[in-house]
Amino acid sequence: MSGTTIDTTVTEPILATVSAWDANDADAFAEVYAPDATVVLTGGTFLRGREEIRRYMAAGFAGPLRGTRGTDEQESVRRVGDCAIVVSRSGYALPGEESVAPERVRRATWTLSRHDEGWLIESYHNCAI
Predict the structure, then answer these.
(1) Side-chain-side CA neighbours of residue 16 (13 Å)
(2) Architecture of domain 8-128 in CATH?
């Protein structure tokens, strides 16, 4: 759409999850999710609420995700009133990898809403590509 600008503050929470992932910081990762957010991951994992998301990521960063690097490339950003829907390609690279291996690339859908403190992630879902 020529002449249309995207409010980049909408995607700041998504970029913050990538930075938090790179730092293996579960607290910073969960902070950009709404208190009652939901997460659905490939394989059927279903997380409810910021604290459950934080615990899940803390366990991952202490174990199999230790030292990994997150990625997210936004493909589509749509504003719908005080909400936004973002579709992206995401994944994570293992320590020493230059790029994400094909088996760890996901297509993700993010739903965000505007709060007094800014945009927060309300829902995240990914599936294998």
Answers:
(1) 18
(2) Roll (3.10)
